[in-house]
Amino acid sequence: MTERLLIIDDDHELCALLQEFLQLEGFGVELCHDGREALQRCQQTVFDAIVLDIMLPGMQGLEVLRKLRERLDTPVLMLTARGEDTDRIIGLELGADDYLPKPCNPRELAARLRAILRRGRSAEPARDADLRVGLTQLNTADRSASWDKRDLELTSAEFNILHTLLLHAGNVVDKESLSRQALGRPLSAYDRSVDVHVSKIRKKFAACGADNPIVSIRGAGYQFTVTHEDRS
After folding, report:
1. What angle do CA 13, 42, 200 make, to 5 degrees?
2. Residues 25-34: tens digit of each pLDDT
3. 136-167 burial code (b ≥16 CB/10 A, e <16)
4. What are the b/e assignments for 102-130, b being 16+ CB within 10 Å?
5. 192-214, pLDDT tens digit by residue?
6. What's the predicted TM-score (pTM) here?
């Protein structure tokens, strides 16, 4: 089945290049060059993934992302200006699944999109369909997560990170392993994606009334803590 992509970018030449390459890679690609128009398009059509530029006419990309996340959990890959770390971090905090600096290599974009789409699928829904540690429960069949029966409302990337941590509850998981297993790519220098996603997960636990279950182990990684109650 052909995965349907929407590229939102006002660089017409780049869009045409990416569309041609991604179609050769087997994707179905639609283009949009305006932020407000893109929101309307997403309300009318279901896309498997969205490539979203930050600098857009009509409505800036970060605002488009914020409004998309109010109603959709479609995977979003942000295109950011090279070196603009602040934009990348804000994008991840707003719910982006990944980012790529511009100008981007079309082959790398295709690889990252495949990684996003792979981790969005439930490969083995019957096995480990329910994963519970204390009051935290994940269901891999419908990719839902809750604490004390309250929906955590995780993005796709956040779900995968929490799933990895729960599978190793009580043990430290290094950032490289989290990046590879949850985000589908090796950890690169100065890449703070894992840290930002973990921060978002912590805030969602707090919003549900939970004490922070994910602790940072300096120089090692992250650990989902297992209390005496969790073990019972």
Report:
1. 100
2. 999 999 999 9
3. bbbbbeebebbbeeeebebbbbbbbbbbbbbe
4. eebebeebbebbbbbbebbeeeeeeeeee
5. 889 999 999 999 999 999 999 99
6. 0.62
